[in-house]
Specification:
By secondary structure, the chain is mainly α. It contains 4 helices and no strands. The protein is flat and about 40 Å long.
């Protein structure tokens, strides 16, 4: 899209503090932080066949969604 992308890694504490500085209650900030803990532990890498059964088709990966979006943008 013509703009540089900068990846910045921050600590879990800084993430929670940032959320709370924008008015999110501490309990919610801690809950959202657990998503990153789970991600680092590879808990989202597990593919359960239940979703395909519920959908009646193979689930679409994030990679596929982003690729379709970028292709539609002519990127």
């Amino acid at each position: 899209m013509g703009r540089p992308v900068v990846r910045e890694t921050i600590s879990d504490e800084a993430y929670r503090a940032g959320l709370m500085s924008h008015g999110l209650p501490e309990v919610m900030a801690k809950a959202l932080g657990t998503l990153y803990l789970a991600s680092r532990a590879q808990e989202f890498a597990i593919v359960d066949p239940t979703l395909a059964k519920v959908l009646g088709r193979k689930p679409t990966t994030v990679h596929e969604v982003v690729k379709r979006f970028l292709d539609a943008q002519g990127a």
